[in-house]
Write a structure and sequence with these properties.
The chain is mostly helical and 178 residues long. The chain has two domains: 80 residues, Alpha Horseshoe (Serine Threonine Protein Phosphatase 5, Tetratricopeptide repeat); 91 residues, Ankyrin repeat-containing domain (Serine Threonine Protein Phosphatase 5, Tetratricopeptide repeat, Alpha Horseshoe), CATH 1.25.40.20. It contains ten helices and no strands. α4 runs parallel beside α6.
């Protein structure tokens, strides 16, 4: 007896994207499945291919879910740690905004550039000081002092460079008591 597969399922398998618009590599990265991340990259999956509703790379998806093992595996597999996402952020900016000091330090050790700014002029240091209004990790009212310290330890000149941190970031950090 012959079995028929629904057309939608065939389309999903043909384009190698899951029901949420994630590739198998992004799914593995988001869940921290390091073995699958390494296997998929070894089989030719592109660690810099953006997908999903936010059009993020697997590295940004791994940072978003704080999947540190996936972050390491993706960087080892060739993920570009300074790549700008469609919304103009870098992996370092995302990790700093979320206050993920462990990932910030990892990215900095691997060559992330803390001087890259988003289209509005904000850097990772600004986002660490202000926090972010992400529905999944709302940090606007958090003091992320460890993350700020990690960024300044990696590049002490950030403190002295004009515009970094921006006056708005300094003001918001003061209002929070950080």
């Amino acid at each position: 007896m012959r079995r028929f597969v629904p057309c939608a399922l065939v389309a999903l398998l043909a384009c190698n994207v899951g029901p949420h618009g994630f590739t198998p590599l992004i799914d593995a990265a988001r869940t921290g499945d390091v073995a699958s991340v390494r296997h998929l990259i070894a089989q030719g999956a592109d660690p810099n291919e953006a997908a999903g509703q936010n059009n993020w790379t697997p590295l940004l998806h791994a940072i978003h879910t704080h999947a540190t093992g996936s972050v390491v595996a993706l960087i080892d597999g060739g993920a570009d740690i300074n790549r700008l996402a469609g919304d103009g952020i870098t992996p370092l900016m995302m990790a700093a905004g979320y206050g993920y000091t462990d990932i910030v330090e990892l990215l900095l050790r691997r060559g992330a550039d803390p001087r890259i700014a988003d289209p509005h002029g904000a850097t990772a240091l600004d986002l660490a000081m202000t926090g972010v209004p992400d529905i999944d990790r709302f940090t606007l009212f958090d003091c992320q002092n460890d993350t700020v310290t990690a960024l300044l330890r990696a590049d002490p000149t950030l403190r002295n460079r004009a515009g970094v941190p921006t006056p708005a970031a300094r003001t918001w950090a003061r209002l929070k008591g950080c």
